[in-house]
Write a structure and sequence with these properties.
Layout lengths: L4 E4 L6 E2 L5 H8 L6 H5 L1 H9 L4 H12 L3 H16 L1 E2 L1 H8 L6 E6 L5 H9 L7 E4 H4 L6 H11 L6 E5 L2 H9 L3 E4 L3 H13 L4 H15 L3 H4 L9
Parallel strand pairs: 1-4, 1-6, 4-5, 6-7
Antiparallel strand pairs: 2-3
Helix pairs in contact: 4-5
């Protein structure tokens, strides 16, 4: 079987996920100081990201900590998932769809309990790649090295044969430390070119140096502008 592998992030790469300001609106609705709802749920976000609580338990915690009734909890979570799912990066998705005969394909994404069902129903990513590894299912978030080791093990591929694509600089650095090649997503054109170079077996040194240089400017941007799923990214 083809040994070369492409591993993609979801939010900020396959999905366009800008901040919608939904938590700010909930703070205002509940008469709370700015940032209060997010702060009260900080450990719920972390637990849901690695699957140490169930979706049902997460909903219960949201209701209890924000004093919301059942209908309000449903509305709160609907706002969360609207931002989380964003809109599809159609050009990149269609390009990746055409890669199935050329390489191995996988997704590695920091996530939250309930994400698989919703993203599958909305985008059918299960039909796009061989495997989807969600942090809430494997029990570890990027940039932890174990996330990359688990992915390579599940796919039965060598780390150097893999190109990992993410829009968050710390994850790119972590992937390289784990032995993978990695590309910082800043747009479809650059990313498609990098994938083509990887599949052609081109030397990656210059490209990786270029990615590092571009990453330095991206690192200065607030995390929510890169990927709304950064809420579930360990700091």
């Amino acid at each position: 079987m083809e040994s070369r592998c492409i591993i993609l992030d979801i939010g900020g790469v396959l999905e366009i996920t800008p901040s919608t300001g939904w938590l700010d609106r909930w703070d205002e609705r509940l008469g709370l100081p700015a940032g209060s709802a997010d702060k009260r749920l900080e450990d719920v976000w972390r637990a849901g990201a690695v699957g140490t609580i169930s979706e049902t338990q997460a909903l219960a915690e949201v209701g209890a900590r924000l004093s919301l009734d059942v209908m309000q909890v449903e509305s709160f979570m609907a706002d969360l998932w609207t931002e989380y799912l964003g809109t599809p990066n159609v050009e990149l998705i269609e390009y990746v769809r055409g890669l199935r005969s050329r390489c191995r394909l996988a997704i590695l994404s920091n996530s939250f309990v309930g994400a698989r069902a919703l993203e599958t129903a909305t985008y059918r990513f299960d039909e796009l790649v061989e495997q989807i590894l969600y942090s809430h299912e494997i029990g570890v978030c990027k940039p932890d090295r174990r996330a990359f080791d688990i992915t390579c093990s599940r796919l039965e591929v060598r780390a150097p044969d893999c190109l990992f694509i993410d829009d968050y600089h710390v994850n790119i650095e972590a992937a390289r430390a784990a032995g993978l090649q990695a590309h910082l997503f800043e747009g479809n054109e650059q990313t498609i070119a990098r994938i083509e170079a990887h599949l052609a077996g081109a030397a990656s040194g210059e490209d990786l140096l270029g990615a590092v240089g571009r990453a330095e400017s991206v690192q200065e941007r607030p995390a929510p502008e890169q990927d709304s799923k950064n809420r579930f990214q360990p700091q």
